[in-house]
Amino acid sequence: MADYTFYTHPMSRGQIARWALHEAGADYEQALVPWQDKPAGFLSANPMGKVPTLVHHAEDGDRVVTEAAAICLYLAEMHPEAGLLPNDAEMADYYRWTFFAAGPVEQAITSRNLKFEPSPEQEPIAGWGSFDRTIKTLDSHLADAVWICGDRFTMADVYVGSAVDWGLNFGILPPLPSFAAYAERCQGRAPYKAAKAIDNALIAEMKK
């Protein structure tokens, strides 16, 4: 048995977790989950019925991890040999920007994609404030950094990089020079290419 069972769908946030699995060098077996008629084993692991869901077959029993950001950070912890964890000086940026992407960036992109945006009066109670403020904040960091934590790639880049990559590909994020350059650096990584090749092949097969 592989160390991990990876429940996913190729046209989902499962692409984030697959990239993380490849960066970590994890031994995994995929279990494709259809949009309808989701298998009982999957729903038992994650009653939300959402992918990605990761089951780690650890020595002390199965551990279930859901939410793409949590899966990324968990894998970095379980595979320290991959060098994806932050050092002390990098830790603040590592956690700050991972959860900035999981919170404000995710919400800003989703609200823009669904054509719902808070009014100025609603902005104080919206976790992302406004789309423009969120984008400006992320741009201010990426304009001066090679990677999220500076000059070294960490697992934070898998999650933030996935958000930027997706947002640019779907035309939701503006093609700012900082975003385009960062996405290009992410796309150049061998684990990114390997993970995307798998999902792209699955998508092509589904479209036949």
What is the strand and helix layout of this fold?
Elements: E1 4-8, H1 14-24, E2 28-32, H2 40-45, E3 53-58, E4 61-66, H3 68-78, H4 91-113, H5 131-142, H6 155-169, H7 177-187, H8 190-206
Parallel strand pairs: 1-2
Antiparallel strand pairs: 1-3, 3-4
Tell me the domain tally: 2
Give the percentage of residues in beta strands. 5-15%
Query: Which spans of ≥5 residues are poorly predicted at pLDDT below 50?
Result: none
**Strand order of the biggest β-sheet:** 2-1-3-4
Structural class: alpha+beta
Number of strands: 4
Helix content: 40-55%
CATH topology of the largest domain: Glutathione S-transferase Yfyf (Class Pi), Chain A, domain 2
Structure overview:
The structure is a single chain. Helix 3 (68-78) runs antiparallel to helix 6. This protein has helices at residues 14-24, 40-45, 68-78, 91-113, 131-142, 155-169, 177-187, 190-206; strands at 4-8, 28-32, 53-58, 61-66. The longest helix is centred in the middle third of the chain and has 23 residues, at 91-113. The chain is 51% helix and 11% strand. Helix 1 (14-24) links the parallel strand 1 and strand 2 (28-32).
